[in-house]
């Protein structure tokens, strides 16, 4: 905006001054009951929000574009703007307009930005998904020392991890932050890493990442002499955390959220899963977007928001620590065997509120009485669960969580006494403090309420005195209390004797308004009492908020304990209802699964009334399986289900199998499914090769690798040679566990050459030209791919299918007689043209067999066991190949 020339009003001058300090954000400028936007901000906001664009006055001879949104509905508009990539600066009125008028009629109400709203700094309940975290992250690189820190300001959870630049992509895929802070000089260099993630990259000046000053700032924040109280942090880790805090001070205008002490994550403490694998396995999001269809959605039985967020963190980051996994399993196993306890716990947990986010809103002065009521209700739940668990022999993790629920009796009693049962949303509305809690407040309320009764009595008195039954005493913000009657009756009140008492105030089109000395006096008393009562309630609110925030640390522990209990109950409920087993985990390289199932596919089949065929997978003696079989037979499902079983086992869950023994999996890599990346100039085959290269360069001997159809995007022999070399590399160099699905049957020869490779196939049957998929994985190899049959099932015209059969038969015959390019070319030259192939005659209806004719007259429900056995022998005799 050019502000150098032209005359502007004082209000517009104030707007331009505030806007100049926040040029990268849309400015919500408070004007009474609206937030208004001007100039380019108005044009951009009107288009993004699909609202009317109007104009207001002129600046430098040009119309000033303007649009606005109501203050009471601002949150929904904010959400739309944030999702579309905007940042919003909110400028509020910092004084009462009446105060501004005292400085002169043309004085402008003081305004300033009180908050900068960005994707990573949301706290409002309506702007957040209660069951997901909203992370703000910061990446710091100090020479060879790099780190990533992240915080959810709606819960106060802060974590940090040493993270080299190469690992930044996988970590962003794991955390899915909404906003990433980087040093401004690094923004361009990190562009390729951050590309493809749904996040906003915000550059900060170099000083924000200063580790020396940052250490002092962080120590002051948590009121400790040194950060050593929380762990041994590298300079880069301190730098990343310091950048987070400085950004929060900037966006929250000095009001820091309730940040908990940092949790330092150890490297390699969690299973490493890159972005491509997360997409392929659909861990937390389905391919089409959203949670529905993902593993997270399929297994989420939690009943609290905190429990749901904890489950998402566990699924995104399975543990590699055996002790941690065993402790979680022990808790789930105990609750699987305690049906009554589990159901009682879940019933009580349904009454718990989102304690973390209520605390955060109160700390940022965005909370209200309902947040306090939510904390009170959650303390009720904690007491109920504590009483339920009393005297029980619980596993150590569950017992520890129950202990963290206690110790809040004083705060609980305070909130019980101070708050009404159903408080209003906002403190300024009043009416949230219970009667009997504050004597001075009760007295002010009595005066206020009795004043209302006095007004009603005065109205009845004046009506009787004047004989005007329609006379009313009303109130507005301009006149205060006044007596109102119709113009017809006004003459009576203006005439003696009433004119001596009733003083004329205002005449409107249809009404005449009066007042009296007594009415003016009672108005003063009532107005003072009501305002005094609101002021006293505000003081009570501040005292209660202080008491709550003083207990923020223990309340945070209580919130985490409820989330742990909820998650354990949810996983136990899932295991019990879906017939899952407890897996055995150890430090070996075992991977033995009996009758394993895909948790998402099984759930979908169950809804359709169908059952899932379980399959074994044993990568013990031969850690690499070469899997063959036709398309649509279930190879991809088998690949993914074993990877998902490993993920479930290492979050501490039971798994969908009859039995499972799994040695800790350090990494999972998945290359299943075809996709391209046209925006970056990559074909499907190029994407496949890039992802395969990442696997071969990173997989260690504890990794689990699942690969599907490597090499299919190029010529047959090129693809076969690449697939062959990849399998050899996995066997000889990576020495990992894995399943390699392929249509290159020539590769099955590797099983005879490599000790660690075994063959398996997905079984099918042919019946009267039809392919029947059995969905059973067996040891051995497929004799062919059944591609032509699958093409027919897909709906290709019959003439195309028949032509394909002719070509396939000729090529297979030629290959057996003498493979080679010249032989194949001769075959192709000898094949008849497509147009010369007569269309296949449509098959008529098959004649019913004697067995079918006999079965049509049988009523199974009416047969006795002996009759059924006799019928079976009879049917066997009707078969053409049966002996007499």
TrEMBL record:
Residues 703-719 form the DNA mismatch repair proteins mutS family domain. Residues 839-860 are annotated as: Disordered. This protein is involved in the repair of mismatches in DNA. It is possible that it carries out the mismatch recognition step. This protein has a weak ATPase activity. ATP binds at residues 629-636. GO terms for cellular component: cytosol. Gene3D superfamilies: 1.10.1420.10, 6.10.140.430, DNA repair protein MutS, domain I, MutS, connector domain, P-loop containing nucleotide triphosphate hydrolases. GO terms for biological process: mismatch repair. InterPro entries: DNA_mismatch_repair_MutS (IPR005748), DNA_mismatch_repair_MutS-lik_N (IPR007695), DNA_mismatch_repair_MutS/MSH (IPR017261), DNA_mismatch_repair_MutS_C (IPR000432), DNA_mismatch_repair_MutS_clamp (IPR007861), DNA_mismatch_repair_MutS_core (IPR007696), DNA_mismatch_repair_MutS_N (IPR016151), DNA_mismatch_repair_MutS_sf (IPR036187). This is DNA mismatch repair protein MutS. Keywords: ATP-binding, DNA damage, DNA repair, DNA-binding, Nucleotide-binding. Pfam families: MutS_I, MutS_II, MutS_III, MutS_IV, MutS_V. Belongs to the DNA mismatch repair MutS family. One of its GO terms (molecular function) is ATP binding. HAMAP family: MutS.
């Amino acid at each position: 905006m050019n502000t150098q020339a032209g005359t502007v009003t004082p209000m517009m001058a104030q707007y331009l001054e505030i806007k100049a300090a926040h040029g990268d954000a849309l400015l919500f400028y408070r004007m009474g009951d609206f937030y208004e936007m001007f100039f380019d901000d108005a044009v951009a906001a009107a288009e993004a929000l699909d609202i009317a664009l109007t104009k207001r006055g002129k600046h430098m001879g040009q119309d000033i574009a303007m649009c606005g949104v109501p203050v009471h509905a601002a949150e929904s508009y904010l959400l739309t703007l944030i999702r579309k990539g905007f940042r919003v600066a909110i400028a509020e009125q910092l004084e009462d307009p009446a105060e501004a008028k005292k400085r002169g009629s043309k004085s402008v109400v003081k305004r300033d930005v009180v908050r900068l709203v960005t994707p990573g700094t949301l706290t409002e309940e309506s702007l957040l998904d209660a069951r997901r975290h909203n992370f703000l992250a910061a990446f710091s690189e100090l020479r060879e020392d790099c780190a990533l820190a992240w915080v959810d300001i709606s819960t106060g959870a802060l974590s940090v991890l040493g993270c080299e630049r190469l690992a930044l992509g996988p970590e962003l895929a794991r955390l899915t932050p909404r906003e990433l802070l980087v040093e401004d000089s690094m923004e361009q260099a990190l562009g390729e890493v951050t590309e493809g993630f749904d996040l906003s990259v915000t550059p900060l000046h170099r000083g924000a990442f200063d580790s020396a000053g940052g250490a002092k700032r962080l120590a002051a924040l948590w009121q400790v002499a040194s950060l050593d109280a929380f762990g041994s942090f590298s300079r880069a880790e301190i730098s990343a955390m310091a950048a987070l805090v400085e950004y929060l001070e900037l966006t929250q205008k000095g009001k820091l959220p309730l940040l908990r002490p940092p949790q330092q994550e150890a490297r390699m403490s969690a299973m490493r899963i890159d972005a491509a694998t997360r997409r392929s396995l659909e861990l937390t999001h389905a391919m089409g977007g959203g949670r529905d269809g993902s593993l997270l959605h399929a297994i989420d039985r939690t009943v609290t928001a905190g429990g749901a967020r904890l489950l998402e963190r566990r699924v995104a980051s399975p543990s590699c620590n055996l002790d941690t996994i065993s402790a979680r399993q022990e808790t789930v196993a105990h609750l699987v065997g305690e049906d009554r306890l589990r159901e009682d716990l879940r019933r009580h947990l349904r009454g718990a509120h989102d304690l973390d986010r209520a605390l955060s809103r109160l700390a940022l002065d965005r909370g209200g009485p309902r947040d306090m009521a939510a904390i009170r209700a959650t303390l009720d739940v904690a007491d109920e669960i504590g009483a339920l668990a009393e005297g029980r022999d619980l596993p150590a993790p569950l017992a520890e969580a129950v202990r963290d629920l206690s110790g809040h009796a004083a705060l609980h009693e305070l909130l019980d006494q101070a708050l009404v049962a159903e408080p209003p949303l906002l403190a300024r509305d009043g009416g949230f403090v219970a009667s009997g809690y504050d004597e001075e407040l009760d007295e002010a309320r009595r005066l206020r309420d009795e004043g209302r009764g006095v007004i009603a009595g005065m109205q009845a008195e004046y009506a009787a005195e004047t004989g005007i039954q329609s006379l009313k005493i009303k109130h507005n913000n301009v006149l205060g209390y006044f007596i109102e009657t119709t113009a017809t009756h006004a003459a009576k009140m203006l005439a003696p004797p009433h004119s001596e008492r009733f003083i004329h105030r205002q005449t409107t089109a249809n009404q005449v308004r009066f007042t009296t000395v007594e009415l003016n006096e009672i108005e003063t008393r009532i107005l003072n009492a009501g305002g005094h009562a609101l002021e006293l309630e505000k003081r009570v609110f501040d005292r209660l908020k202080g008491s709550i925030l003083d207990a923020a640390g223990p309340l945070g522990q209580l919130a985490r304990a409820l989330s742990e209990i909820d998650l354990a109950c949810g996983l136990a409920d899932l295991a019990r209802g879906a017939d899952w087993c407890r897996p055995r985990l150890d430090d070996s390289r075992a991977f033995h699964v009996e009758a394993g199932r895909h948790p998402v596919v099984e759930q979908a089949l169950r809804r359709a009334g169908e059952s899932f065929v379980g399959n074994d997978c044993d990568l013990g003696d031969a850690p690499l399986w070469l899997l063959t079989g036709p398309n649509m037979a279930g190879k991809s499902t088998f690949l993914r289900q074993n990877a998902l079983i490993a993920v479930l086992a290492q979050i501490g869950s039971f798994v969908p199998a009859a039995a499972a023994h799994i040695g800790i999996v350090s990494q999972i890599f998945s290359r299943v499914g075809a996709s391209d990346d046209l925006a970056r100039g990559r074909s499907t085959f190029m994407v496949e090769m890039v992802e395969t290269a990442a696997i071969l360069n990173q997989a260690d001997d504890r990794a689990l690798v699942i690969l599907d159809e490597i090499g299919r995007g190029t010529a047959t022999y090129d693809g076969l040679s690449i697939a062959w070399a990849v399998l050899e590399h996995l066997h000889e160099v990576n020495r990992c566990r894995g399943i390699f699905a392929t249509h290159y049957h020539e590769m099955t020869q590797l099983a005879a050459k490599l000790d660690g490779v075994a063959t398996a196939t997905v079984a099918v049957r042919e019946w009267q030209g039809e392919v029947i998929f059995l969905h059973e994985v067996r040891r051995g190899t497929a004799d062919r791919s059944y591609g032509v049959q699958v093409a027919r099932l897909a709906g290709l015209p019959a003439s195309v299918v028949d032509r394909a059969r002719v070509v396939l038969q000729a090529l297979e015959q030629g290959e057996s007689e003498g493979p080679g390019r010249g032989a194949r070319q001769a075959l192709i030259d000898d094949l008849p043209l497509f147009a010369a192939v007569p269309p296949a005659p449509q098959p008529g209806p098959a004649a019913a067999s004697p067995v079918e004719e006999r079965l049509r007259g049988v009523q199974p429900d009416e047969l006795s066991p002996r009759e059924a056995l006799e019928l079976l022998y009879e049917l066997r005799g009707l078969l053409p190949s049966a002996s007499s």
